[in-house]
Design goal:
The complex is a heterodimer. Chain A is mainly beta. Chain A is 0% helix and 53% strand. At the A-B interface, strand 4, strand 5, strand 9 and strand 10 of A face strand 4, strand 5 and strand 10 of B.
């Protein structure tokens, strides 16, 4: 039962362009969403988060959009840089069990020159 | 300021042996979380511990798996009588307090890759 889904296993984008990574969820109890970035042989590192009371959160080149009615969120990276090449995981939690994150399967982003 | 330290980085065991995975949280962190990543899957929550207490073990398999976080020393994830299906990357994370909601103060270690022959 995959409650958080990232349907694109990989994405290739040219340097300077926009990268859009998508995530869908099925559990309507989720009210907090996070994006993590993971390099090979390293643990995930926190990137950006959004609460369900918002529909957008921005931090520098990274913006997360949340569409609650569609149970969909997306991460926009503008402009994309080669150092952004990594696996990106979407994660969700509900405040009742906030210590437990439910992760998607990840999207591997490749930013080409 | 060292991050979350996990050792070993790689662990090879034969079927039926025991595996012990260690996690030292960041300095000042008293909350530890274990996650498992099977090949081609996302990370899955296993257990959440505070010092000397298991808070949430809802993601732990019912048999062969146990976890502890003693007053002194690292947190240990123990897998008895390993099987091939236990082969995975095991990640530990720590935080200074209960994450509610979870945020950037949850830090992950680099993981232990367990391979069962």
């Amino acid at each position: 039962d995959q409650q958080v889904k990232q349907n694109s296993p990989s994405l290739s984008v040219q340097e300077g362009r926009i990268s859009i990574l998508n995530c869908d969820y099925t559990n309507s109890m989720f009210d907090y969403f996070l994006w993590y970035k993971k390099y090979p042989a390293e643990g995930p590192t926190f990137l950006i988060s959004i609460s369900s009371i918002k529909d957008k959160n921005e931090d520098g080149r990274f913006t997360v959009f949340l569409n609650k009615s569609a149970k969909h969120l997306s991460l926009h990276i503008v402009p994309s840089q080669p150092g952004d090449s990594a696996v990106y995981f979407c994660a969700a939690s509900d405040t009742g069990t906030a210590s437990k994150l439910t992760f998607g399967t990840g999207t591997r982003l490749q930013v080409t020159l | 300021n060292a991050g979350v330290m996990q050792n070993p980085r790689h662990l090879v065991r034969r079927r039926g042996q025991e595996a012990r995975l260690r996690c030292s949280p960041m300095k000042g962190h008293s909350h530890v979380y274990w996650y498992r990543q099977l090949p081609e899957e996302g990370l899955k929550f296993m257990v959440y511990l505070q010092k000397e207490n298991i808070i949430d073990e809802s993601g732990m398999p019912k048999e062969r798996f146990s976890a502890e976080f003693p007053k002194e020393g690292p947190s240990i994830l123990r897998i008895q009588q390993v099987v091939r299906g236990d082969s995975a990357a095991y990640f530990c994370a720590s935080s200074p307090r209960r994450q509610q909601p979870p945020n950037e103060k949850l830090f992950f270690g680099s993981g232990t890759q367990l391979s069962v022959l």
